[in-house]
Structure formats: C-alpha cells, structure tokens
Amino acid sequence: MTVPASPINHESGLLAHPAPKRARGRPRKTEDERDDGNRRHQLLTAAARLFRDKGFDATSTRDIAAAVGMHSGSPFYHFKSKDALLLAVMEEGMRSALARQADALHGPASASAASGPLVQIRRLIRAHFDTLLGPGNDFIPVMLYEHRSLNARQRASLAMLQVAYESAWTPVLEALHASGHLRAPVKLSRLLILGALNWSVQWFDEKKGASLDELADAAMALFLKES
C-alpha cells in the first residue's frame, strides 16, 4: 500500500498538519453553568450570612466563593460585581417577604378563619417577625444594615419592592383606625410599627427570648387599643 505524501508547508519547510475539526453545536457548559440556579441560590445565602456577620465592606468575593466551595472568580459568572450581589441579596429577601406576607393574608390558612382587621394585622406582624427572625433570616437584616451601600439606581429598584410590601399594611391600619383600635395617624403608625419590629433583629435571641408568637402578641398589645 502506498502511503500518501504529507502536505508540505513551503514557507516553513515543515510538514503541514490539517487543523483539528471544531466541535459542532454550543460549547460544553461548565459545572457552574449546568447548576446555575442552585449555585446562584447558594451564593445569595452565603453572601447574606457573611454580609450580616462581617459587614459588606469587610466581606470579599473570595470569602463568599470559599463559603460555597467555588473558585474566587466564580461568583462573577453569576453576578456582575459585589455591589450587584448585595442588591440581589436584598431583592431576594424582599421577594421572600412578599410571598410570606401574601400567604399570611390570602393563603389557605387565612381563608378558614375570621379575616377582620385585628386578625389581619396580627398575621402581618407574625409574618414580619418570621421574615426578620425565622430560619434563613439573614436577607432582610442585611437590607436594614447595608441599605446605604447601594447606589441611587439600586435603591430606586429596591424601593419598588418595599412599597409593594408596605402597601399591604395600609388598608388594614385604616380599618383599625376607623374602628378605634388604632389612635395614631395611619402613615405614622405604619412607620412606627415597622420600625419597632425591624429593631428586633438587634436584640432578639431565640435561645433566650420569647417565641415569635409571643412577640406578635406583645406587639398587638403595645400598638393597638382593646375594644
């Protein structure tokens, strides 16, 4: 059998070899790309915990990557910057809070019970405590601590979620004011109640303090006039 002569590159004098064939279709995804949703959630959870414990400025992307077993540059596949990750943590917290609040007011458990304003405000308060102090509760505290670390555009984006969350309180407080259970003006009452509830992240200790139900009952007694 005659072996065909190899093509010669006349400029270099070396044997020319055909270029390797390019694989068809899309490039093969990396492990991070294949597990994008789960990795993103892991990064958000780890970032929320570290931002809360160490502060935004003192936490590096290397710290966050190490917490989830990723390479130091891997978070930038999921988030453009550490600032973008901070905003995503806060948005995740607000979306979770909105979902929990909607379930408290309109979920199956609320449909089977009385739905007057006293019952509704108690559900709102209890859901708010769960958002602040319940399992996986680092997201909203980060928003309370690090809100000033956002730029103006990020604050405006987050404000839309905050307005949606707080707007659910207004009709309930208006009904309580009309019935005489709430004496202070509605807008001031909303700001004072949420401000007081939010401060609980500074002092609450589930190992030493009251239960979340007991906190909700105490808040009801503090802010509302008995009929």
From TrEMBL:
Q: Which InterPro entries match?
A: Homeodomain-like_sf, HTH-type_TetR-like_transc_reg, HTH_TetR, KstR2_TetR_C, Tet_transcr_reg_TetR-rel_C_sf
Q: Which residues bind DNA?
A: 60-79
Q: Where is this region: Disordered?
A: 1-41
Q: Where is the HTH tetR-type domain?
A: 37-97
What organism does the record attribute this protein to? Albidiferax ferrireducens (strain ATCC BAA-621 / DSM 15236 / T118)
* Classification lineage: Bacteria, Pseudomonadati, Pseudomonadota, Betaproteobacteria, Burkholderiales
UniProt feature, compositional bias: Basic and acidic residues: 28-39
Instruction: Please indicate if the UniProt record lists DNA-binding as a keyword.
Output: yes
Q: What is this protein called?
A: Transcriptional regulator, TetR family
Q: Which GO terms describe its molecular function?
A: DNA-binding transcription factor activity; transcription cis-regulatory region binding
